[in-house]
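This part of the workshop introduces the protein records we will be handling. As an example, a complete record with its sequence and its structure tokens follows.
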Amino acid sequence: MFKSGDKVLYPLQGAGIVEKIETKDNGFGLRPFYVVNLILSGMKVSVPVMTAKQSGLRSVLPFDEMQKAIAEFPELEAEEEPNWNKRCRKNLELLREGDVFKTAAVYRDLYKRNNIKLLSSGERKIYLSARHMLITEIMLSCDVSKEEAEARLLETI
């Protein structure tokens, strides 16, 4: 269970800070919700406490683990799917899991693909989501600015 002030990652939305836990009526009665303030957009999302784990909400990696993860990004294995539609679905599923290594593999592969040939609009959206998730988690984990997080991410590619 998270508490106010915890740094968390919400898949496809990015990293943020649990602002508070509030009780809301969701149509099925009163339920507790995490109110997460996403750091770059300033948007607030409410995540039901009961389903937070299933939705992928997790703690941001601690600094030392993030440093190790960043160092491992270039070595990550990824399967190359030639069919763009299957590739998009698979990449989106990987992002929904919220795993930093899977997100990094998706980002790296789409980054390289974009340098060879422009991405389709669907792949571009997935690429930008992966980039956003990684940058915001690096920002909170390493306590750095957006620009420094971007630079650290690009260094690994």
